[in-house]
Structures are given as C-alpha cells and as structure tokens.
C-alpha cells in the first residue's frame, strides 16, 4: 500500500475508506488525502476527514486516483453497495487497494474471540471470493493477491487500555517477548508443515497497477505496532544488531518493539 502511495504523481487524490483515525501514514504533503468513516475520532492522523457511510459516498463520480480499504470491508453492513460506490468514485486508470482478514485463520479467530466479534459483519474465507466480488462490483481488474502475516499485536500489553481480560492469561497477559517467540513458533510450524497459522488475511490490488511476479510479502510484522517490513530494509536501516547465535532480533524502526527476524524464504509469493 505504501508503495502505491509513494508512486502517485503530485496532486493525486487518495480516499482512505473506513479510515478510523487514519489507516495509513505518509510523509507526502503533495497529495489530497480524504479519510472517510461513519464517525470522526478525536485522535486522528493528518488528512481531510469526512463523516459518511461507505455505501453512500458524498463525492462526485471519478474523484480519486487511489482508494484504500485497509481492514474495513469486513465492517461494512452494505458491502455490495460500498463496492459499487468505489467503482463510481474511482477515476479511469485508478487503483484500489484492499486488505481483509481471513475468517478461517487462527489469528482472526483469536481476534474475534478476544474482542467478542471484533465488529466484523462480513466473514471472508476465500481470496477468490473477495477478488471476484470486488471485480464484479467495481469493474476493476484484479492484479494480484498477497498473504498477510500476523504479529498478534492486538494482544500486546503495550496496546491495552484498561485492565487485561482473564482470557489474556493464555498469552502471558500480552508480554511482548512471549508474543514475539509465539510468532516465531507459528511461522516455523507453517514452514515445516505447510500450515497457515501465522497468516491472518490477504491484500489485493485492483485497477491500473502491475505487480512483479514472485514478489514476497512482508513477513516481518512488528508485535507492537503491526508495521511490516522486508528483511533487507531492516538490515539496511540498522535495526538488526549483530549478535552471535541462531536467532536474530530487530527493533521496529517507528515504535521500538522487539521482534524476531524472519528471512524471505519463510514467506509466500504473490498469487
């Protein structure tokens, strides 16, 4: 998603759909970013905020060059109407980025169990189902699907407000080091047995975008803030200290969270 934003020409219009307090951050100030949600939060990131229903967007047709739906489709009661609206307000040659959870994964099941449903009204269990629905309702061609990896950051004690739930005892009450090791175990089980324990969903690209064949997803996802990075970036940024042994840790550049480092061989390519 951030690569799409970085590649936009100056003056492009971006719609952050179901943004909450802002579903992404960018340092670019030459873009017109409009963030839409049913309610505007008091604490929010930069951009122009509009309170509106995704199924009834208050914008003229062909208004945006890039539309981002970053974990919001699962919350839309009128999903088909919302996707039709995306097709209406998208400019010719535009791009639609979608990220959704896979309701069949371990991570999403834990999330909904801990959060009593997590506010999800749509359950996606097939990448093909999502891609087909978006293509049909927006008129935008599907260009690629990428598996998304979990960090279990929603369990992290750093992100908790109020007292911990009794359920969290199963996850060491959100101890960060415990969660980092648990992520490592889940990824190793996936690698050994071809499971999907450490994956939690997919990202999709639609419209006028070309994705390189065999590109790898960002498997290093911070256990504290949920930011994902390729292994090469973390090493070049000096986030991976030189230490002897079989295990390498890295400090997340924006938040400082401690994570075990995973290599590119632990991930899957684009579908």
Please give the number of β-strands.
11
Q: Helical percent range? A: 10-25%
Instruction: Spell out the helices and strands N to C.
Output: HEEEEHEHHEHEEEHEE
The structural class is alpha/beta
Distance between the termini: 17 Å
- What count of helical segments does DSSP give? 6
Average pLDDT confidence is: 87
Largest sheet: 7 strands, mixed
Strand percentage: 15-25%
* Gross morphology: globular
Instruction: Show unreliable segments.
Output: none
Q: Provide the gyration radius in Å.
A: 19 Å
Strand order of the largest sheet: 3-2-1-4-5-7-6
Q: Would you give an account of this structure?
A:
This protein is of the alpha/beta class and about 270 residues long. It has a domain at about 105-120 and about 150-200 and about 215-270. Helix content is about 25%, strand content about 25%. The chain is built from 6 helices and 11 strands. The strands form 3 sheets. The protein has a 7-stranded mixed β-sheet. The protein starts with a helix and ends in an 11-residue tail after the last strand. The mean pLDDT is about 85.
């Amino acid at each position: 998603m951030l690569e799409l934003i970085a590649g936009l020409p100056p003056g492009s219009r971006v719609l952050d759909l179901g943004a909450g307090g802002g579903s992404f951050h960018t340092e670019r100030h030459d873009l017109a970013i409009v963030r839409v949600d049913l309610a505007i939060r008091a604490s929010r990131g930069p951009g122009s905020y509009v309170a509106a229903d995704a199924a009834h967007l208050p914008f003229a047709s062909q208004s945006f060059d890039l539309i981002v739906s970053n974990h919001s489709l699962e919350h839309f009661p009128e999903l088909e109407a919302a996707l039709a609206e995306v097709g209406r307000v998208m400019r010719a040659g535009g791009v639609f980025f979608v990220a959704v959870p896979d309701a069949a994964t371990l991570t999403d099941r834990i999330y909904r169990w801990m959060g009593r449903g997590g506010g999800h009204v749509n359950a996606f269990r097939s990448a093909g189902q999502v891609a087909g629905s978006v293509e049909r309702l927006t008129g935008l061609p599907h260009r690629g699907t990428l598996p998304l990896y979990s960090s279990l950051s929603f369990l992290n004690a750093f992100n908790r407000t109020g007292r911990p739930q009794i359920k969290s005892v199963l996850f060491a009450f959100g101890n960060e080091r415990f969660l980092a090791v648990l992520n490592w175990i889940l990824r190793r089980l996936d690698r050994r047995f071809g499971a999907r324990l450490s994956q939690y969903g997919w990202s999709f690209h639609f419209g006028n975008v070309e994705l390189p064949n065999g590109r790898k997803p960002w498997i290093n996802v911070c256990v504290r803030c949920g930011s994902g990075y390729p292994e090469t970036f973390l090493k070049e940024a000096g986030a991976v200290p030189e230490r002897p042994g079989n295990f390498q840790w890295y400090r997340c550049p924006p938040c400082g969270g401690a994570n075990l480092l995973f290599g590119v061989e632990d991930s899957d390519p684009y579908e």
